[in-house]
Amino acid sequence: MQSLSVYRLHKLLVVVGLLHVRVNAQTSTADRTTETGEAAITDPNEECSPYSYPPVVNQLSAFPSIWEAASILSDDSAAQAKWDSISANIPSNISVKTQPPASNYSSDDPDCWWTYSLCTEPKLSGLPVDISAAPEPSTLGYGFDDGPNCSHNAFYDFLLNQNQKATFYYIGSNVADWPLEAQRALADGHEICAHTWSHPYMTTFSSEAAFAELWYSMQMIKLAVGVTPTCWRPPYGDVDDRIRSIAHALGLQTIMWGYDSEDADINGQSITDQTVVTNYNNFITTASNGTFNFTGAIILTHELNNFTMSEAVQFYPQLKSSFQHIVPVGVSLNKTQPYVETNYSLPTFEQYIAGAVSVNGTRVSPNSTSSFQSESSTSSISSSSTPPATTSASNAANRVAIYRGFLLLMFFGLIRYPL
After folding, report:
1. What is the mean pLDDT of residues 302-331?
2. Please, what is the end-to-end C-alpha distance for the chain in angstroms?
């Protein structure tokens, strides 16, 4: 089935799904100007074709070049003022690192460098401990790195139909490329954290450049989505106390993980597709053995490509059977105010596991002349719940058809990869 084009595979999913639930699909021209319109696109080729979103495009000159290492722009007085206000408190005695770690780096790991020793408890006073596990028992802090992926509608539809919320760690450059996809995370009730501007090894950057990577990722998420994150995840887990100090000064909580699916690391040699399957299965076995009965877990997974999202879909039922609760990381921490803006809130852990997923708030549009009302609803965490009001009835029906068609084809062994 891998010989099928993505487009033909998608069409097959639609047909199978429609036959199963007898949905009357209607052909229409895609609206690529709104989050709702973009989320309704079902052809991944169309999803990943570039589009222009003026509120972001018109402001790109105020950001570093997309996918290039960030630095403070010479005319960005706000960024410079913020850096000037925190720079004196950033340690200057922690050196810039190399990858891989230099042989002369102290075995005592004085900088709490995760890449060297998996250290998550800072040795520099005043810094909070990294979050590497969900504190609630038998709970999975569910999240995905490297988004938004342009073809993620099928995956987000799956989460929507499960009424499953997650934490998404968004790369600033990806948000600049796919702003409407980024907006969907908020509209669907997920939590958004920053994942830097260009996904570098942060400890290899000067302090000012590392600041720029975080600052501009936060500003781009604010511009495109309307909220400013208060959490981040370092690419490759590469963080030390110098970088933690910068993130902390920006109000960012550092989120790590305790287990790695390696779904983004396939090289065909030491790490293969089977490696990922084995890692998922080992993690599920660990959960089933009661390891997380007192403190939960976080596993590293990605929204990177069709394979990583497919594996997430494939293993979700087993994860759900192995953990009592699967929640966004912020929910596991009872972090009801996930953004700098206080007009948007997430449910408490107890509210979430009780089945009341309330996402309340308003999102100020990037266009200063208008505003956008985000999802405001309460829904039960079950596969039979009604999708959020942000999706029209016809679009929701089509999403259900695609989702069920996908599951049917997986059941009969006809496909492995998602749309």
Report:
1. 98
2. 12
Please list the active-site residues.
Answer: 145, 302
Contacts (Cβ under 8 Å, ≥6 apart) of 1: 9, 409, 414, 415, 416
Closest CA to 165 of 405, 416, 318, 349: 349
- Tokens at 220, concatenated: 């781009």
The 10 Å Cβ neighbour count of residue 417 is 15
| The overall pTM is greater than 0.70 | yes
Q: Are 274 and 285 a contacting pair, CB within 8 Å?
A: no
List C-alpha distances in Å: 308 to 42, 85, 87, 192: 19, 40, 38, 19
Task: Look up residue 236 and give its DSSP letter.
Answer: G
CA torsion angle 70 76 77 79 (round to 10): -30
Q: How many residues does the chain have?
A: 419
Tell me the C-alpha distance between 295 and 292, whole Å: 5
Distance of alpha carbon 342 from the chain centroid: 21
- What is the identity of the amino acid at 57? V
Give the tens place of pLDDT for each residue, 55-66: 999 999 999 999
191 in Cβ contact with 84 (< 8 Å): no
Instruction: Say if CB 378 and CB 163 are below 8 A apart.
Output: no
Cite the beta strand spans of 276-384 per DSSP E: 297-300, 325-328, 344-345, 357-364, 371-373, 377-379
Residue 393 CB neighbour total at 10 angstroms: 9
φ, ψ at 159 (rounded to 5°): -60, -40
Tokens of 337: 């105010």
pLDDT-wise least confident of 215-219, 321-325, 410-414 = 410-414
E strands along 235-379, which residues?
253-254, 259-260, 297-300, 325-328, 344-345, 357-364, 371-373, 377-379
Cβ-contact 410, 314 below 8 angstroms: yes
- Gyration radius of the chain over CA positions: 21
